[in-house]
Amino acid sequence: MRGTLQVGNTAGVCPAPGGRYTAGMNHPNEADWMRAAYLEKRDPEKRQFRFYRIIITQTLFGPWALIREWGRIGSPGTVREVWYDSEQEAVAAGEKLMKQKTRRGYVPLSP
């Protein structure tokens, strides 16, 4: 699905650029509790080779977290986490962020 956050198991997907896994990627029941999207922006003329990862997951204590990771492809990214009271709030924020990034030239890649 292009332009939406997909529910699915990302354990078989390549780890985040830089070879490290982001929060929650090794949970045994990932398909039940995680939504993830990976976007890239490549523009050789402007020397832009960037990635953006969005993960929505439930924390151990109940609230939902929107985890964002971004940076240059092949390098460790910057990670930020925002907590939400409900899954719907987190998904809405993730979809808004996804739309913003696709408007700026990022392309969603399939997991």
TrEMBL record:
PROSITE patterns: WGR. Residues 30-111 form the WGR domain. It comes from Nitrosococcus watsoni (strain C-113). This is WGR domain protein. Pfam families: WGR (PF05406). It comes from the Bacteria. InterPro entries: WGR_dom_sf, WGR_domain, YehF/YfeS-like_WGR.
